[in-house]
Design a protein that fits this description.
Oligomer: single chain
Radius of gyration: 13 Å
Bound molecules: zinc ion
Shape: globular
Helix content: under 10%
Order of helices and strands: EEEHEEE
Number of strands: 6
Number of domains: 1
Number of helices: 1
Largest sheet: 3 strands, antiparallel
């Protein structure tokens, strides 16, 4: 299982997705591509894995960027700063 964070890929989204939301995925569950509430296209940010299986595998920021992911860290409620990837430097907060 792992926790994925989603943000609207464009536009402001709805009450669920406008500031991003987290969703716990079961193993093998496909990632969301659209908001379940409003249908907006979603951008996925990799969150911290809920369970690190085996303990030997770590996702490196360079690894994330090379695979097209954009990773953010939470600055404060509703604001995130990019730590890796090609997405906007910051999201939220406006
Ligand atoms: Zn939405």
């Amino acid at each position: 299982m792992s926790i994925h964070e989603y943000f609207p890929a464009e536009g402001r989204g709805c009450a669920l997705c406008c500031y991003g939301f987290e969703r716990l995925h079961q193993a093998g569950e496909a990632p969301l591509t659209h908001c379940p509430a409003c249908g907006a296209a979603l951008r996925r940010a990799l969150g911290t894995p809920a369970i690190i299986e085996g303990g030997g595998h770590r996702l490196r920021e360079s690894h994330l960027a090379r695979h097209g992911y954009t990773q953010y860290r939470r600055l404060e409620r509703g604001r995130y700063e990019k730590t890796a990837g090609d997405g906007p430097d910051t999201i939220g907060g406006d």
